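Quick one, tokens below. Sequence please?
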């Protein structure tokens, strides 16, 4: 039934991460963690999958001697999200 839906974005946490990134220019890891209420380990795994797919860009740096991970959505990720939403609407509002 959901063959048109991107399986990478169909995961609740990955969809939440990408949805969040659609609303901001970039976000740090802690912001994503607070927004999704997920564990650091689970977020790390999902970020890696999204990065490998080319949907997000990850920049690792240090801020005040602490690791800082900044994440932003790529054009490919933005397009994938928009296609996902369009295809999901076909299931919610068939015939429109």
């Amino acid at each position: 039934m959901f063959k048109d839906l991107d399986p990478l974005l169909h995961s609740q946490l990955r969809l939440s991460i990408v949805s969040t990134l659609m609303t901001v220019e970039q976000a740090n890891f802690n912001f994503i963690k607070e927004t999704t209420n997920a564990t650091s380990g689970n977020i790390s795994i999902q970020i890696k999958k999204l990065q490998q797919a080319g949907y997000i860009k990850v920049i690792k740096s240090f801020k005040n001697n602490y690791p800082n991970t900044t994440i932003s959505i790529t054009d490919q990720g933005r397009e994938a999200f928009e296609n996902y939403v369009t295809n999901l609407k076909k299931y919610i509002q068939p015939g429109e």
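The longest strand covers residues 56-63. Strands lie at 27-28, 56-63, 66-73.
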